[in-house]
Write a structure and sequence with these properties.
This protein is α/β, with parallel strands linked by helices. 39% of the residues lie in helices and 15% in strands. It has 14 helices and twelve strands. The protein has a ten-stranded mixed β-sheet. The chain has a two-stranded antiparallel ribbon with strand order 2-3. Helix 3 (59-71) packs parallel to helix 4 and helix 4 (91-100) packs parallel to helix 5 (116-125). Bound molecules: S-adenosylmethionine and iron/sulfur cluster (2 copies).
Length: 337
C-alpha cells in the first residue's frame, strides 16, 4: 500500500463536479445518535454537550434518518458521538437496517455495552468497529476514562474478536488510542496488549484542545516511539500524534454529512467550536433534498474558518492539501494520459 491514502483518488469525481459548479451528494453519513455518556473521559470534546443538553435519539428517529440517507444515495454510515452511541435503544435494529440495505456500517464506541446481541449484529452487518481504549491497564483506564470499566470492555472486545473468527466474518476490528500526557509512556505496552486481544489494528491519535494534551516536544518523542512500533508491528499500528494542518480552503465537506442527536446537520464532525457556522439544516424539520447544495449550504462552506479547522487533526486536512496541489498545478491536464 502507498504511504499516502489511496482513498484520495476516489475524490476526483466530486471535485470535478464542484469545479463545474455542481454539488455532489454525500457518500457517507456520520451519525451522532446520542449526547449522553456512561463514561467521563478526561478532556472529552463533547463532555459539556453530554452534560448540558443530554439527548438520545429514539429508534424511529434513527430509522427515519437512515431511510432518508438511503433515498439520497448515501452509501455508508459512520456511527459515533457525540456521546456513547451504544446507549441508544434500537441501535442494533438500525445497524441491521443499514447493513441489509447495502450501506457500509462503521461504529465507534467505548465498548462498555458491546453485549452478545450487539456483537451478533455487528458480525453480520457492519464493516468496521472501533473501540476507544486509551490504556493497557485498569489504573490508567480509570485515570483517563474516569470509569472502572477496563476489564468489562476488554472482555467485550475479546468476545467480539472470538465471534468474528467463529463466524469467519470480514468485520474489521480496531482499537483507538488517544494519547495525552498521562498515557504516553504506556503506548508500547498498549500496542502489544491490543494485539493480544485479537484486533486487526490500533489507531493512534493525539488528544487535542481539552485535558492533558501533549506539548509539541512530547509529540515528537511519542511519534519516534510510534515509528518503532510501526516497524515492529507492520500494518497493525496506524495514525500519528503529529499535528496535521489545513493549508488551503476546505472544499471537501460535501463528500460526507453529519447528523447529531437533535437532527441538526453539520458540514463536518468538527463543529463543536462553531455550531452556528457549521449547521446547514435539520433532518427532523426538513429533508436533505431541501437544503443540500442550497445557498445556505454554499455560504456555510465559504465561511469555514481554517484556524478553527487546525485545532484538531481532521483527515480532510491532507485530502484538501493534496487535491489542491494536484489540481492547482498548471501542468494538470487530466485528459492527456
Ligand atoms: C467523543 S467519542 C464518542 C464515541 C464513543 N463514546 C467513544 O468514546 O469512542 C469519539 C472519539 O473522540 C475522541 N476524543 C474525545 N476527546 C477528544 C479530544 N479532546 N481530542 C481528540 N479526540 C477526542 C475519543 O477518543 C473517541 O475516539
Ligand atoms: S466515552 Fe466517548 S463520549 Fe463518553 S466521555 Fe469518553 S470519549 Fe466522551
Ligand atoms: S475540520 Fe475543516 S478541514 Fe476538516 S472537514 Fe471540517 S471544515 Fe474541512
Amino acid at each position: 500500500m502507498a504511504d499516502w491514502d489511496p482513498k484520495i483518488l476516489t475524490f476526483y469525481k466530486e471535485v470535478e463536479m464542484l469545479r463545474e459548479g455542481r454539488f455532489p451528494r454525500p457518500r457517507m453519513l456520520t451519525l451522532f445518535p446520542s449526547y449522553f455518556c456512561n463514561q467521563d473521559c478526561n478532556g472529552c470534546l463533547f463532555s459539556w454537550m453530554n452534560k448540558k443538553n443530554p439527548k438520545k435519539m429514539i429508534s424511529e428517529e434513527i430509522l427515519k434518518i437512515i431511510s432518508e440517507a438511503l433515498d439520497f444515495g448515501i452509501k455508508a454510515i459512520n456511527i459515533s458521538g457525540g456521546g456513547e452511541p451504544t446507549l441508544v435503544q434500537g441501535l442494533d435494529k438500525a445497524i441491521v437496517f443499514a447493513g441489509s440495505n447495502g450501506m457500509d456500517v462503521r461504529l465507534l464506541t467505548n465498548g462498555k455495552e458491546l453485549d452478545k446481541q450487539l456483537i451478533t449484529v455487528l458480525i453480520s452487518h457492519a464493516k468496521i468497529v472501533r473501540i476507544s481504549l486509551d490504556a493497557s491497564n485498569k489504573e490508567l483506564y480509570r485515570i483517563n476514562r474516569r470509569a472502572d470499566d477496563f476489564d468489562r470492555v476488554t472482555k467485550n472486545v475479546k468476545a467480539l474478536c472470538e465471534e468474528k473468527s467463529r463466524h469467519d466474518s470480514d468485520l474489521i476490528i480496531g482499537i483507538k488510542y488517544l494519547v495525552d500526557k498521562f498515557n504516553k509512556e504506556d503506548l508500547p505496552r498498549a500496542v502489544g496488549f491490543a494485539k493480544s486481544l485479537g484486533v486487526d489494528y490500533v489507531e493512534v491519535k493525539a488528544k487535542r484542545a481539552f485535558g492533558p494534551v501533549l506539548t509539541p516536544v512530547e509529540e515528537v518523542e511519542v511519534e519516534a516511539r510510534l515509528e518503532e512500533l510501526r516497524k515492529l508491528f507492520p500494518n497493525f499500528v496506524k495514525g500519528s500524534v503529529i499535528k496535521s494542518h489545513l493549508n488551503v480552503p476546505c472544499i471537501l465537506t460535501p463528500i460526507h454529512t453529519v447528523v447529531d442527536a437533535y437532527g441538526d446537520v453539520y458540514l463536518c464532525c468538527y463543529f463543536m467550536n462553531r455550531k452556528a457556522d457549521h449547521c446547514i439544516g435539520n433532518v427532523f424539520k426538513e429533508s436533505l433534498h431541501d437544503f443540500w447544495g442550497s445557498e445556505r449550504h454554499r455560504e456555510a462552506i465559504e465561511r469555514i474558518d481554517r484556524k478553527k479547522c487546525n485545532v484538531f487533526d481532521c483527515r480532510f486536512h491532507k485530502y484538501n492539501n493534496v487535491i489542491s496541489e494536484v489540481l492547482g498545478h498548471k501542468d494538470f491536464f487530466p485528459n492527456i494520459v
